[in-house]
Amino acid sequence: MKKNPIINYKFFSLTVAFCWSITSYALSFDIPKIINNSNQAINVTNAAKTTYNGATTTSTPLSLSTSQDDNTFASNVLNPMLAGVGATQTATVREGEDFSDIAERYDVGYYELFEANPGVDPDNPQAGTILIVPTQYILPNELKPNTIVINLAEMRLYYQPKVGQKVYIFPVGIGKEDWETPLGVMRIITKTKNPQWFVPDSILKFRRKIGDPLPKVMPAGPENPLGSYALRLSRSDYLIHGTNVSAGVGRRSSAGCIRLYEKDIAELFSLVEIGTTVQIINKPYKAGWINGKLYFEAHMPLLEQRIEMGGDTKPAIDEVEAANKNHAVQVNWQEVTKIAEEHLGIPQRVDEK
C-alpha cells in the first residue's frame, strides 16, 4: 500500500582576511521570490494599498506558485513597496535529498528550512515528506534604493536597485563563532570575476593547526572558496562572494565574509555598481503592515545574541510596538511571544482578529 506523504505543518580578495571554506568540517547550526520566470519590474497598475510604519504606499498583490515539484524558480525579485512580500511554498523531499539539497533547489538557505520545519531530520529527511519553504518576508526598515541590506539573524541579503520597483533577496552564509561578520555601513569598492584568494596569516595558521594546510595564494578555480565572483567591501578584509561549497549557504560557514550560491552571486554581481551601500544588521525580529494587518516575523537569534538575551522577549515586543506606533491596534501579545519562541522565520499575523 502506498503511504501518504508525511506533512509537517507546525505553521503551516584581493586581500581577504576572513573568507575560507570549511570543506570536510562540520558547519555550525547557528545556523525569494516571485516565481515568474522573468526579471521584469512588477506592474503597479491597479495596485493594492499597504501601510508600512505609518506610510501608505501602493503595491501589486503577489501570486506565487505552490507547486511542490516545480524545479524552476526564477529570480528573487519582489516588489519593495510591500512591508511583506511573497508567500510560503511547499516542497516534497526526494529520495536521497537533505536540507542543503532542497534549500539550493528552492534558492533559500539551509537554516531557513531548518527553522520552518522543526522535528524533521535535516540530514536524512524521509522521502515524501512535505516541507514548508519560507519564501515570505517582511522587508527590513533599512532597505532603500541602491542599498544592500544583510541581516545576519535571517542569513539573507536584500538588494534594492537605484532605479525601479524591484527587490532581490538571496540566502547567504555568514561568519562562524569567533569569526563573526562585522556590523555596520560599508560600500562596494571593487568587483572581481574569477578572483584569486590571498590567504591571510590567521587562516594559514588555523589550517596548519588542524592539519589541513593551504597555499598562500589560491588561484581561481573549483578549489577556491571565493567562487566565481567577489565584491570587496570598504572594510576591505571582507567580501560578498560565491562559494565552492553550496551547503555553506544559509549557515554560519565562513570566517566573516558573506557567501552566496554561485548563480545568486552571478546575478548580484551583474546588478550592483562600485559604490553601492552595504548595511549589515543583526535583527532576529521584524514587524510590518500587510493589507492593513500587522505581521511579525521571528528568527532564532545567533548564539552570541541568545546568550546575551537569555529568555528576554523584550526585543520582540519592542519591534512590534514600533511597527504599531502610528496605528494603535490591539496586539495579541501572547501570539507575539509564541512566535518569538518558535522562531519559524515565517511572517504571522499578530493584531487581534
CATH top level class name of the largest domain: Mainly Beta
Strand order in the sheet with the most strands: 3-10-9-8-19-12-15-16-18
Number of helices in the DSSP assignment: 7
The poorly predicted ranges are 1-18, 20-81
| Percent of residues in helices | 10-25%
Please tally the β strands and state the result.
22
Structural class: alpha+beta
The N- and C-terminal alpha carbons lie at a distance of: 43 Å
Tally of separate domains:
2
Give the CATH H-level superfamily of the largest domain.
L,D-transpeptidase catalytic domain-like
Please outline what is shown here.
With 353 residues, the chain is α+β, with helices and mostly antiparallel strands.
What does this 3D model show about the protein?
The relative contact order is 0.19. A hairpin with a 2-residue loop joins strand 1 and strand 2. A nine-stranded mixed sheet has the order 3-10-9-8-19-12-15-16-18, covered by helices on one side. It is an alpha+beta fold and 353 residues long. The protein has two domains: 295 residues, L,D-transpeptidase catalytic domain-like, CATH 2.40.440; 54 residues, no CATH class. The chain is built from seven helices and 22 strands.
List keywords for this structure.
353 residues, alpha+beta, L,D-transpeptidase catalytic domain-like, 2 domains, three-stranded antiparallel β-sheet, 22 strands, disordered N terminus
Helix and strand topology:
Elements: E1 48-52, E2 55-59, E3 77-78, E4 84-86, E5 89-92, H1 99-105, H2 110-116, E6 130-133, E7 136-138, E8 147-151, E9 156-160, E10 167-171, E11 174-175, E12 184-193, E13 197-198, H3 201-209, E14 217-218, E15 229-233, E16 239-241, E17 252-254, E18 258-259, H4 262-271, E19 277-281, E20 285-290, E21 293-298, H5 303-309, H6 314-324, H7 333-342, E22 348-349
Parallel strand pairs: 8-19, 11-17, 16-18
Antiparallel strand pairs: 1-2, 3-10, 4-7, 5-6, 8-9, 9-10, 12-15, 12-19, 13-14, 15-16, 20-21, 21-22
